[in-house]
Amino acid sequence: MSKSQHQTNVAELVISCLEAEGVEYMFGIPGEENIRLVTATEGSKIRFILTRHEQAAAFMADVYGRLSGKAGVCTATLGPGAINLALGVADAQTDSTPLVAITAQVGLNRIYKESHQIVDVVAMYKPLTKWAETVLTPASVPEMVRKAFDVAQAERPGATYLAIPEDVEAAPANGRPLPERPTHVAGADPAAVRTVAELIRKAKRPIILAGHGAARARASKELTQLSDLTGIPVATTYMGKGVISDRHPNALGVIGFMRRDLENFAFDKADLIIAVGYELQEFAPARINPKGTTPVIHIHRFSQDTDACYPVAAAIEADVAVALEALTGELQKDGCPRYPNDAVIRSLHASELEAGANDDSFPVKPQRIINDIRNALGDEDIVLADTGAIKMWMARLYPTYAPLTCLISNGLCTMAFSLPGAIGARLARPKAKVLAAMGDGSFLMNSQEIETAVREKIPLVVLVWVDNAYGLIKWKMDLELGDHADVDFGNPDFVKYAESFGAKGYQIKNAAELLPALRESLASDGVSVIACPVDYRENLKLTTKLGELTDPL
Hints:
There is one protein chain. The chain is α/β, with parallel strands linked by helices. The protein is built from 22 helices and 18 strands. The protein has a 6-stranded parallel sheet with strand order 2-1-3-4-6-5, sandwiched between helices. Strand 17, helix 21 and strand 18 form a beta-alpha-beta unit. The termini are far apart.
C-alpha cells in the first residue's frame, strides 16, 4: 500500500486528537503494547519525551499541567508500566492539576480472562482520577479523548485515564478529532456578593486564606486589590505561595506547618476567615479553626466537602478572579473599614530569615540555603520544593513574589516529584530558570531523570540538601518519640554521579560556595547537580522555639 493509501489506525487517530487539543509534549516509555501510539508522534506536532521511569513521566505531565493550565499527557505500557505511572497521576489528582494518562491494555481477545500481564487498570485508576475508561472501539476515540480533556481541565481539575487494548490500538480508524468546546467563566451571583460584603463589614478582625485555587485561577491581581482596599491580611497555603507577593505589607506567609506557627496567632484572633481558592486537601481546617466557631466565607468555583471545622457562613461559587473583582466593587460602593495587617508576624518571619543570611557555619543552615536560593533566582523563576524537611523550611521562609513560582506537592505530598517535575516546568515556562530543591532521600528515588534532561537538552539545576537521612521522619521521631531509628543511609559521590550522566556536579564545602555555584549553574544552558550538606539540627531548634512562643500580636 502506498503512503497515500495508508489506512489510519487508532494510535494515529489518538495522536491527531491530542494535536487538536493543543498537546505539545507526551511524556512516557514505550512498551510492546503501545509502540504504535509512541511511533505515531513521529512527524506530528507532539514531542515525545522518553523518560527513564513511568513515575517520572507522570510527574513531568503533572507539573507541566500545573503551570500551563492545559492537561499534561503521559503514557506507559500495560501492567507494570501502568502501575508505575499511577503515583504521578494520583499526585495530579490530589493537587487539582489537569492530566491525561494513556496506557496500553491486553487485547480484547483476552481481556475477559486470566492471562499474561493482565491487571484491571481501569479499576486501579478509578479512585485515583476523575474519570477512567477503556477504549473498546475505534469509533469511540474522538469522543473519549475529548471527554478526557474536558473532565481533566474542568474545575476542580484533576487526572483522567484511558486504557487502549493492544488490538484496538492497531485497528483501522476513520474518525476525526472533535472541536474543543467553548469554556464558560462562572460569574458571581450579585446576592451572594452582597451577603459576603456585609459579613466582611461586620467583622472586627477578618483574615484571608488564599489557596491553590487562587493561584490556578491567576487571581493574584484581584486578591491584592481586595487586600489593598480593606487592609485584610493574607495567609496562603503552601500551594498558594506567591498569589500575593511576600513583599506586600499585608502578606502574612504560609499556614500548614506541622506544629503551631506564627500565622496561627492571626487565625486565633480572627472573627471571620475568607477562604479564597482554598481546598481541603491542602491542609486540615482544624489547624486554623479547631473548634469550628469562626465563620468561613468560601470563594471558589465549587463547594468543599463537609468539615466541622470549615463552617461556611456564605459563599461565592464562581471563577475566583471574577468573584474577587465583584466583591471589591461591592465593598467600594458603601465603604469598608480598614483592618489591622499583623505586621508583627511579617517582621518575625523576616528576622528569622535574616538571622541566617550571613551565617557561615557548615554544614549550611537551612535559613542560609533559602537566602542563597532567593538571591540566585529572579521573581518569575521557578523552584520546586520536594517533600520532606526541605518542604517545611522552604514553605515557611522562601519569599515568593509571583504565583506558581514555588511549587510544592501538598495534596498527596509525594517525595521525588521535583526533579522530573523540573523538566515539565522548564517545558511549560521555557523563559524561566528552574531549580529542583530536594533532599538526598528524594533525589535518589528519581535521579535517573538527569539523563532525560541531558539527552533532551532541557536546562535545569538540582540542589540536593544532604543530611544522609530521611530528615523529616527523623525530625518527627525525635519530636514524638524522643529518639530516632532506621532513617539514616549512605550516599554516592554526587559530583561523580552527576558527571556520569553528562551533567555538571558541584560539592559545597563551605557556606560561601553555595551562592556562586547556584548563580553559575543557573546561568548555564546545561544540567547541574549541587550537593550541599545541611545542618538539620535546626529542625528541633525551630519546633522548640515555636512551642515556647506566646502571642506575638
